[in-house]
Amino acid sequence: MQRNYPKSTKKVLRHLAGVAYQRDLDSELTKLKARFDQWQSGKIDCFDLSDLIHTFHNGTSRELWKFYTHADPDRIVARGIIDKIISREEVDDDVLAQIRPLLELYEQEDAQEHSESEDSENELLNPRIPAFTTERALSPSNMLPGLTGQLM
User: Domain range for residue 92?
Assistant: First the structure.
C-alpha cells in the first residue's frame, strides 16, 4: 500500500478489495453465462462458445486477476467506489477519510476523461473512426475493450 495506514485500515481495505474483485468477476462471468444461454438456444455453436471461453480465460479473467493481485488495496477500493462496484455506504467513514485523496484523484481523472471524450467526439470528421480517449488508471474494464465487448 502506498500510504502508511493503521493495521485495522489495511485489513478493511484488503477485505473491500476482495469484495470488489468478486463483484467485478461475477459481472464478467454473467456476461459469459449469457453466451452459454445463446449456445443452449442454438444461436451460437459449440466452437464459438469454446472460443469465447478461451478468450475469457486468457483475456478478461487473467486481466482481472492481474489487476486485483498487483494493485494496492487502497487504489482498488477507491477505483471500486468511483466505478460503483463498492458503495460509499459499505466503507467506514474513517477509511473513506483516509482514501479521500485517491477518490478525489480518480474523480478528477474521470471528469477530465469525460471532457476529453466529448472534445474528441466533436472534432471527428469521420464518425466511423472511434474517438481516442485516455484510459482510466486502474480500470480493468479498459484493459480489454475488445474482449469485454465480445462477451456482452
Answer: 7-150
